Amino acid sequence: MESFGRKLEIGPTDNTSDQRTPRQPLRLIPEAARQSFVPYSRVQPGLRAGENDMTRIAPDRPRALGEPIEVTGTVTDEFGRPQRGVLLEIWNANKFGRYAHVEDHSGLQLDPNFLGLGRVLTDENGQYRFWTISPGAYLARPDIGRWRPKHIHMSLRGGTNRLVTQMYFPNDPYNDSDPMRILMGDAFECNVGVVYDTIGTDVARGYRFDIVVGGRNPTFFE
Ligand SMILES: [Fe+2]
Q: Fewer Cβ atoms within 10 A, N terminus or C terminus of the chain?
């Protein structure tokens, strides 16, 4: 069989990026055909109260270890139009840099009060807000000593589309050597949260992360 090679550039990312990259040219499926087999509902899943507060595993449970932070932003399309009803699924490491995941073999400390998963829908103005614990940086490639800076993973789902991105933190010492940051180049700034003071809450710091889907200065998606 003829080999077409890879269609996407593979950067110096993690040790499984090659397994997640298409080896064949992508084929565009016509819109009508796409809609005929992709389950699509205008009704997004109902979210339970507290799913956007990752600092607790349940509303009546103690707060997780580390610095609680707020993250807010607006999801817009390339023309600046707010995208309402977008489902954001969020995950990040705990304050020690450990994921509560079977594939995290770091042996770092788990926090029984931090699951590291959350969900939230954008409102009528395309805005979202959630709370989490400021994640620790972690040694992603022990074999070559490569660290990943603090970051929060986010998946956005609207209609039949799903995009996955990461929010970075300003002035993290590992930012400059991060593989995704190297791939992004100057566009990296679009993926760095902007600090703001939170007023009237028990969360010390907030980060504004506006997500732009498409256009000339889009958010970088994986
Ligand atoms: Fe990560």
A: N
